[in-house]
Amino acid sequence: MVHTMRLNIVHPGADKLRYEIREIADVARRVAEAGIPVVWENIGDPVCRGEVPPAWIKKIVVNAVKEDAVFAYSPTKGLDETRAYIARERNLEGGIRITPDDILFFNGLGDGISHLYRNLNPRARILGPDPAYPTHSSAEAAHADKPHITYKLDPENEWKPDLADMEKKIREHKEIAGILIVNPDNPTGFVYPQKTIRAIVALAKKYKLFIISDEIYSNLAYKGSGMKKLASVIDSVPGIAMRGISKEFPWPGARCGWIEFYNRDKDANFDKYARSIVDSKTLEVCSTTLPQRVLPKVMGDKRYYPYLAKRTRNYKRRADYAHKVLSKISGVIIHKPHGAFYMTCVFKKGVLNKNQTLPIKSSLKKYIESCLTNAPPDKRFVYYLLASTGVCVVPLSSGFNSRLHGFRFLLLEPNDAKFEKTITTIARAISDYLSS
Question: Across the beta sheet with 342-347, what order do the strands follow?
Answer without folding.
Answer: 332-334, 342-347, 406-410, 394-395
